[in-house]
Design a protein that fits this description.
The chain is built from 14 helices and 16 strands. It is of the alpha/beta class.
């Protein structure tokens, strides 16, 4: 009887990076135990083309439900005895602009910190664990101001000092940067204190861009780091700078799977993930791609050439990652095309279903808008050209999530 493949627990399996990592890990020959917040997330993953195409390999995938990775002891009983590796992609909090300044620490920073500590503590209690791979971020080592505000003259690398700022924080993005830094610092503190039987690999991607197979609608795709990428491509003049360092989601996933090989990467260490070389890419390149390849979508109002995205040049030295893992990161053009191809596909799908007109997607007032508190409001306004004024107001006020 053939020996079973090693089993990997992947937190955040229903997330943007987590799902691609799950697929890459299965393709690498591992068994995967996916942690998801809801059972229906597991059903959705099983229904994706990537999993269906795997045939027998798909049988190596099982799930556990972990509603809140930041809850005390959330993983203590979830890690099965035959799990040998953990990949922690689950980020309990992304940028949430509805959080008030007095709650940045409690609702952004602390969940990231608790999730990290829960994973490490659970691994410490399981002697079969050989390695934990953490999805960290460039934000953990690059100060907020040097990423999003001021031009930076620092070249960041895998041994750059960790950023560990304390509250108060100016905004939700600065709080997220602080949370990433504190989570990485907590990992180092844990390792120094406990001298665990396992090693830890911290992966630090820049802005992750690309297709999201779990997205059923264009609204599902317009979230997270893809949302930040799309804003100016939908016509918005964005005031906030974005750092110049980006990376393709498939490459991020592949490195997560490769990082499990303890014989390849023997010790605890950090790796930066970015495709832009030392200074990264200029965001206006995305508009050039649209102008050459996606003008039909512009004519339909699904994309725009009128937006602007200011850039903050951030320098990194990430040659170590490509060398160690023998991988060549996909360039910015491929990242953008991957995202835009899916965006256009989902817009076409919605148009056929009668729910799309331009970027605001109003063909009439025949749908539900869900506000930030989950309440549902049906709008019976009358269509006037683009959309009724009532609908437009709801779109702005509710940061609409229309199904």
């Amino acid at each position: 009887m053939a020996a079973l493949a090693p089993k990997v627990l992947i937190t955040g399996s229903s997330g943007f990076v987590g799902f691609r990592t799950l697929v890459a890990t299965l393709e690498a020959g591992y068994r995967v135990l996916g942690a998801v917040p809801r059972r229906e997330d597991a059903d959705h993953i099983h229904s994706t083309p990537s999993i269906k195409r795997m045939g027998n390999l798909g049988g190596n995938l099982t799930f556990i439900t972990v509603p809140d990775i930041a809850a005390d002891q959330s993983l203590a009983e979830a890690i099965e005895k035959d799990v040998e590796y953990i990949i922690h992609t689950d980020s309990p909090m992304t940028v949430n602009c509805t959080i008030t300044a007095d709650r940045y620490d409690s609702q952004t920073v602390q969940p990231l910190l608790k999730g990290t500590n829960n994973v490490l503590s659970a691994a410490l209690g399981n002697p079969s664990i050989k390695r934990v791979v953490m999805t960290s971020s460039l934000m953990a080592i690059a100060p907020y101001n040097e990423l999003f505000v001021l031009e930076s003259f620092t070249t960041f690398n895998d041994v750059s000092p960790i950023q560990n700022p304390n509250p108060p924080y100016e905004n939700a993005v600065e709080a997220l940067c602080a949370g990433k830094g504190k989570a990485l610092a907590a990992t180092n503190t844990f390792l120094a204190k406990n001298k665990p039987h396992f090693t830890v690999i911290n992966l630090m991607p820049g802005i992750v861009i690309g297709h999201n197979e779990l997205a059923k609608t264009w609204r599902d795709l317009n979230k997270g780091s893809n949302k930040q990428t799309l804003r100016h491509l939908l016509g918005e003049d964005v005031s906030t700078k974005l750092p110049s360092q980006t990376v393709f989601v498939d490459d991020v996933a592949k490195v997560h799977a490769l990082a499990l090989k303890t014989e390849k990467v023997a010790k605890t260490q950090n790796f930066l993930l970015s495709s832009g070389g030392n200074i990264g890419r200029l965001w206006y390149r995305a508009l050039e791609i649209i102008k050459k390849e996606y003008m039909d979508a512009v004519k339909k109002g699904w994309l725009s050439l009128d937006g602007e995205q200011p850039i903050n040049r951030v320098m990194v030295d990430d040659g170590k990652t490509e060398k160690v893992f023998n991988i060549k990161f996909a360039g910015f053009d491929k990242q953008i095309r991957s995202l835009l191809d899916q965006w256009v596909q989902l817009k076409m799908k919605a148009e056929k279903e009668g729910v799309v007109l331009g970027n605001r997607n109003f063909t009439g007032c025949r749908y539900i808008t869900r506000g930030s508190f989950g309440e549902a409001t049906r709008c019976f306004g009358v269509l006037h050209g683009f959309c009724c004024l009532i609908c437009f107001d709801l779109y702005i006020v509710c940061a609409v999530d229309v199904q």
